[in-house]
Design a protein that fits this description.
255 residues; 2 strands; mainly alpha
Length: 255
């Protein structure tokens, strides 16, 4: 899914109204990093609990895992929507979101691990590498987060999510299954679609970096560190899921 909270315009409006605060009350990049780390730890702890509870004799009990997985997915979507409209609640929604994503990502990871052992670990490594690589390119100025770049990325992501949403609704009425099969299958179109999603997720990291950095530069209020951490978590989860899907498609196409 796309990042629902790191909108450049909305952040700019908040910074204009509440910015220029003293050091103790102002947002910092390091503070945002620490809070992002905390959310990641919460997500990983929930994932560990899921594995410890439902992974038995070398395979998961997916019948018991699925309610947690889909419940976590729905809860994550609801919490993201709440955060879009009630940004000051980001500390509370962020912690709950991390726990919910631990259930969703943990369940999806268990399923993939049972089919393709070792693939989730590879996806996690690629996700970490992409994060560090995009951060390096951003800090080195190779990728410049201009206003046009940010609007282009956010517009492309919004268009992608709108298209997926429309296709989902059509599927509910028994329409468009062929398109869904091509996009999520392991053929050339499905692989190309996954590459598109990964590219947009990686570019979204640059948008996140820029918005967080600008918030710190404008001395935005301290609570916006939680908002930045929430947004970065959304992008990282999306990136990991898409990378894992691509690896699974590539593995399936070789079988």
């Amino acid at each position: 899914m796309s990042n629902p909270v790191l909108s450049e315009k909305q952040w700019g409006d908040i910074a204009d109204r509440e910015g220029g605060l003293a050091d103790a009350n102002a947002m910092t990049v390091n503070g945002t990093i620490m809070k992002t780390g905390l959310l990641l730890v919460i997500m990983l702890a929930v994932m560990w609990w899921l594995f410890d509870t439902f992974w038995n004799n070398g395979e998961p009990d997916m019948a018991k895992v699925q309610p947690f997985m889909f419940g976590g997915m729905i809860a994550g979507l609801v919490l993201a929507l709440i955060t879009m409209f009630a940004k000051r609640l980001a500390m509370f929604t962020g912690i709950l979101y991390a726990a919910a994503q631990g259930l969703f990502v943990g369940g999806f990871t268990m399923y993939m691990e049972s089919i393709y052992p070792g693939l989730p670990l590879l996806a996690a490594a690629f996700t970490t590498g992409t994060l560090l690589g995009m951060l390096f390119l951003y800090r080195a100025g190779v990728i410049k987060a201009t206003s046009g770049f940010m609007k282009g990325v956010m517009g492309a992501v919004a268009g992608l999510m709108l298209g997926i949403g429309i296709l989902f609704v059509l599927n509910l009425f028994g329409i468009g299954y062929g398109i869904t099969g091509m996009l999520y299958g392991n053929g050339p179109i499905g692989i190309g679609f996954s590459i598109l999603c990964i590219t947009l997720a990686a570019l979204s990291l640059v948008v996140d970096f820029k918005v967080i950095e600008d918030g710190a530069s404008n001395r935005a209020p301290k609570w916006m560190e939680w908002l930045g951490a929430f947004g970065l978590m959304v992008t990282l989860v999306w990136l990991y899921i898409e990378i894992l899907r691509l690896l699974a498609k590539l593995r399936a196409s070789d079988d």
